[in-house]
Amino acid sequence: MTDSLQRTPLYDLNLELGAKMVPFAGFEMPIQFPAGLMTEHLHTREKAGLFDVSHMGQIRIAAKSGDVKDAAAALETLVPADFVGLAAGRQRYGLLTNEKGGILDDLMVANMGKDLLVVVNAGCKVQDADRIEKALSDRCVVTRQFDRALMALQGPAAEAALAPLCPAVKDMRFMDVIETELATAAGPVPVTVSRSGYTGEDGFEIGCAGADADKVARAILAQPDVLPIGLGARDSLRLEAGLCLYGNDIDVTTTPVEASLGWAIQKARREGGVREGGYPGADVVLKQTRDGVERKRVGLVADGRAPVRAGAKLFADAEGQNEIGVVTSGAFGPSVKAPVAMGYVTPDYAAVDTPVFAELRGKYVPLHVRAMPFVAPGFKR
Amino acid sequence: MTTYYTKSHEWIRVDGDQGTVGITAHASEELGELVFVEAKDEGTEVAAGDAAAVVESVKAASDIYAPVAGTLAGFNDALSDDPTLVGKDPEGEGWIFRMTVANPDDLKGLLTAEQYKSL
């Protein structure tokens, strides 16, 4: 490990729990714990898992006017989502686009009543904060909270594990967000809690001061059925849930339409909507929505047992003559019990149940385009 | 029968010029539970250090190298149904492929069990 890698507030606890640490997005992060990736994945789907995601960036955006709607309207100039229509106490997924409609990052935006809480990817957080600050500083105060901790408690037992520490979570629905207190051995500490995650399961994302992170994590881990989970299982869980990994499945070369993320652009921002366009690359995105695209992100499940990994070329035929796309994420899905992947294909091959072939060690293995998520979502609506 | 080891964590158990190859318990632990194992076709000629098989965990694929030159002589078909056999018994039931060793003298260049343990 080099000295330049950063550590999260849960670094010492991760080591104490036996984590195998790897460099990720400039941080030393736990890739797996002694239970191992397979067990961690299945445990999260059956019980509950706690993930340290403190490497991600938390940013607060407050309007100088004091009205959160003004902060929401300002952020809409950078993100094609309806934040003005986002009620207090609710959270929504969004995409930061560039002038060509390419995706600079994906993020979660919560209306905290007085301001917005934005959570962005670790590898993009400085660049994102710079972009937001530059564009919004005349109207808003943008505060980087990169020293705060963030952890995700995911799985069907998440509510039962968190409610004894934080009773308010029982009343939350999927994508609700609150500010509350969480009981720890050293007394209650202030936290932000959203009912959301990156696994396709019910669960919560809990933000707190870096100094409180160890206490919060220990309180949650002391609950029945909770295991610490590493980034390895996080990746296989999100892939089975059909969720994009920034840098793999989406990046500056892919647009929201190509990435099949048109659902993240609400009606108000679409053609004919009350606040149509008005974000970087809107002309490209509106045109693509109207006229179609050259490639679409799809889900893929292999017919056989061999995992198909990111970078594998996709073909229409078993002889590798007609190349139609590429795999962007691929792994064995422990819950699906088959190799699962996502990738981009030409629109003619994007329909569900279309057979395609992936190049694998000189052979062409059969897959089918399948609907995502690959596992049934466990959200509490 | 004698078992030799490689620095890349394969073992080869040999009887005359017939070898059986797998991965060590240490390698198996590092890889975690396997979800897929595949060897190159029987009859494939390999040089020492050529990728002769692949083992895959949820997250990653790892090549398994031929410890010495020779000809592949069969795959452990039980691994097609249950790749976790490698983790359960890496140096026994979890063997991966058989090979005919081209030159048994090449085995002298490999590690003994003692030498492998001291790595």
From TrEMBL, chain A:
It comes from the Bacteria. This is aminomethyltransferase. Pfam families: GCV_T, GCV_T_C. SUPFAM superfamilies: Aminomethyltransferase beta-barrel domain, Folate-binding domain. Keywords: Aminotransferase, Transferase. GO terms for molecular function: aminomethyltransferase activity. It catalyses: N(6)-[(R)-S(8)-aminomethyldihydrolipoyl]-L-lysyl-[protein] + (6S)-5,6,7,8-tetrahydrofolate = N(6)-[(R)-dihydrolipoyl]-L-lysyl-[protein] + (6R)-5,10-methylene-5,6,7,8-tetrahydrofolate + NH4(+). Its EC number is 2.1.2.10. Transmembrane segments: none annotated. Residues 295-375 form the Aminomethyltransferase C-terminal domain. Belongs to the GcvT family. Residues 10-267 form the GCVT N-terminal domain.
UniProtKB/TrEMBL annotation, chain B:
Keywords: Lipoyl. Its cofactor is (R)-lipoate. Pfam families: GCV_H. One of its GO terms (biological process) is glycine decarboxylation via glycine cleavage system. The modification N6-lipoyllysine is found at residue 59. Binds 1 lipoyl cofactor covalently. GO terms for cellular component: cytosol; glycine cleavage complex. SUPFAM superfamilies: Single hybrid motif. It comes from the Bacteria. Residues 18-100 form the Lipoyl-binding domain. Belongs to the GcvH family. The glycine cleavage system catalyzes the degradation of glycine. The H protein shuttles the methylamine group of glycine from the P protein to the T protein. PANTHER family: GLYCINE CLEAVAGE SYSTEM H PROTEIN (PTHR11715), GLYCINE CLEAVAGE SYSTEM H PROTEIN-RELATED (PTHR11715:SF3). HAMAP family: GcvH. The glycine cleavage system is composed of four proteins: P, T, L and H. This is Glycine cleavage system H protein. It comes from Gluconobacter potus. The lineage of its organism: Bacteria, Pseudomonadati, Pseudomonadota, Alphaproteobacteria, Acetobacterales.
